Amino acid sequence: MVRTTRPAPVVHGLDPASALAFVIGVCLPPLLPRLLALSWWLAGLALALIILLVSRRLWPLAALLIGFVWASHQGQAALDLRLDEARAGQDLPVSGLIVDLPRNDLQPPRFDLLPDASSALGGRIRLSWFNDAPALVPGQRFEGMVRLRAPRGLENPGGFDYGRYALEQRLAATGYVRTGVVSEPDSPGFAAAVDRLRARVADEIDQQVADPQHAGLLRALAVGDQRGLDDAAWDALRITGTGHLIAISGLHVGLVAAFGAWLLAGLYMIWPRLALRIPRLTLCAVGALAAASAYSLLAGWSLPVQRTLVMIVVVLLARMLKRQVALPQSLLLAAVVVLVWDPLSVLGAGFWLSFLGVAGLMWALPDAHRQTGIARSFGRAQLAMSLGLLPITIAFFGQGSVVGPLANLIAVPWITFVIVPLLLLAVLALGIVPTLGQGLLKLAALILQPLWHLLEWMTDLPGAAWFFAEPSAWAVGLALLGAIWLFLPRGAPLRALGLLMFLPLLIPKLPAIAQGDARISMFDVGQGLSVLVQTREHTLLFDAGARSRSGFDIGEVVVVPGLRALGVRRLDRLVLSNLDADHAGGREAVLRAFPMADVQIGIDSDPAPRCEAGTSWQWDGVRFEFLHPPEFFPDRGNDSSCVLRVQTNAGVALLTGDIGAVIESSLLRADAARLRADLVFVPHHGSRSSSSPAFVAATGAQLAFNSAGRDNRYGHPHPEVRARWQDAGAEWVASDEAGFSSVLLSRLETVERWRLLRPRYWH
Question: What pTM was computed for the model?
Fold first, then answer.
């Protein structure tokens, strides 16, 4: 018997090489420090057109050029939306519509505003309302005076790139309300009506579910409302690797699409003659698209949801046009369509997690049919997903979940096939039979409870997640190749060597510090201070950054990720120069991550030991000594700040906290020679009340590091202070200009500035 082989299905008209080249072209502009000029774009398009007309063999090159130009154009368009720097910090009149769900749960409340054309602002702005804010509702009109600035984030190793996020979201400005009023519009519009429906569903969940954490999880799953998730919830989701489920994931949207198709397919059972008028496939596709679109709107129409909807449209069109589609080609086609729709998608982790996750499954599945049993096949698929996505999760989040595969094995079906359908039925029932809808919400919370307890238990397991130093691009790429190598078809030689390709990612080579030397690093923490001092085998953190009234914790989002990205495994000592929020606000977050660190502080009222003048110790040939405050010094706020002297074989660093001119004079009288230093942290962020001429002259510093927030309301640093240090011969290094900055005391001429090391066109 002759066995026939069915040819692999193809997508007619899709050139895989050209499609892949287009994707690569879209990915290139985000690597540039600045976008190319318009003339280069036009030249690239002209060359692409010539190639398309002349040589089919070179079409991939044309596709790459088209992808590059398209992504560059959209990137420039997003940049053009941003507030002009000339208007930053001014009181500007603004009117417009409140969009999405306002954050009334924050202090101060925060909301997104879509300005009217009369406001002369090109895109959406994000505002905080500090004084007497009313209860904000989606679709309300706002009119008032605001103070804005262009969106720009803090630049640190392992830190969240807010500038990149703002570009992806097309955010034009951030700021706060000076004065304003809200009113109901004559006609809220469709988008506002959808947002108000989402808000009502979220409020109903809050009323029916007693546990705030469970209510927050259900709101996120039902309407994409993540406002109620606290730090503990996010920690559990991150450590167990299940955060993708709480976002409205592609799996959830796909499930709703399948339900819509199934619902309309049932019409043919009731009315068989319908098939004579409308093809079954066409009507099912309409049902799938309608259901997926409705759920996407309910979920907030976020960019990840839009991408998923585009992928569903691609698949449905292929089916309706009766095109046979191979899975890899369909994925590639979906990627092309998504990037034509929004080329800035490549800036977010969601794009890579979505497509590489599916690609990993496809790569692993060809061999899955040879396995004995569904369990082994599913296990292989889960392993492929975990290993394939590990390089991306480390690159974007700096960690890998050890318990993630098991957590997802349980959570994916639990949430996707039980909780989400219950929630959707509840939302439908709330508008028809409210009592039934409320009962379904309570049932969903009851079913969620054991799963959440299990995830919390996994979170607390020792070694549940591993944290990694920030990897290089080549290490990420090599690990991805290793994942492909591991899942080559059975019989391929030396597949286990793929594991070795993960080593540069998992065990990166960190820069060594010589005996008797020290590396001093200033985190970019905005208006605050956090300094890392590293010797050969020890680490000290001087201050932990700020925590705002709204709960935004610099220690949580900047300092701890930064320490881990730098490869810090153990923190030996945490010194808090004073208890001001901009210095000690991140204390709890740092101590949660490094609970064994010894703590010293300059304020006597705190139970931690005081950093008294004369106290000294040595680490790895480096001498540490406190110069202030002296014994029995009263608590005097900034003037009680710790002053730490770090002396190596090659130089001296002086960390000064928030001391003012009075304490500077006291130190000069006590022992001016001890103030001589090569690197000085400018006292009190460059305040005019500090850095007296005598103090600056006594230090003789080559480097003056200053930590202050961009456009801060205190006016730090004062221009006279900056000029004083520079006139004395010190090189000025400011966190708001350079971002994270680091230097070895043995190589003061080489200061590493993060904004120069990692320049991107959106910074």
Answer: 0.86
